[in-house]
Design goal:
6 helices; globular; alpha/beta; binds guanosine-5'-monophosphate; eight-stranded mixed sheet
Length: 203
Amino acid sequence: MKRLQDKIMQEGLVLGNNVLKVDSFLNHQMDPALMQAIGQEFVRRYAGERITKVLTIESSGIAPGLMTALELNVPLIFARKQKSLTLREDIIVEKVYSFTKQETNEVTVSKRFLSADDRVLIIDDFLANGEAASGLARIVEQVGASVVGFGIVIEKSFQPGRQMLLDAGYRVESLARIASLSADGVAFVNEAVEEAKSEAVQQ
Ligand code: 5GP
């Protein structure tokens, strides 16, 4: 998504070799018009999938998740993060290791909001090692609902999350795919080259 790539180029800050700071439009201050365009793009990519719920994780997934849900006219659920929890029967719990905070959280969703006949689109702001994404998928699958796929705003393609999700059989749609982060800046994956490579493998 060109508009998102431009915004990352203009406002993204690279921290070390593997963290991108985008707190001027996604992680702290948020750009509503960009979030709306992001929601519309996810809906375009997942057209015809009969999605019944959008699921994300607090807090940075909420803005793109809500705009996607608005466009689909379905509810958004955000999983809550809690450090530790006394087990209760009405919630679904999964452990998720946080890439940025380097700690494990218990992530919970109320059983009232997901059921076996739901078709769920999972949205998140970043995909790195895939811990958050696969934790959300396990929550959906615990109730017997279906994961339609993942909608990722920024994928760091040099980290293993995307491949792990593809290997597990999931569909992954990422609006900006980053090939590398360095002091020189951000380099994006060349989607045309990637597509040609995967077509060559399939033949
Ligand atoms: P994963 O679970 O795939 O390892 O990491 C994804 C989660 O970590 C996202 O929910 C996001 O909040 C956070 N994250 C991972 N990498 C980055 C990054 O480079 N920048 C920011 N701002 N957040 C990140």
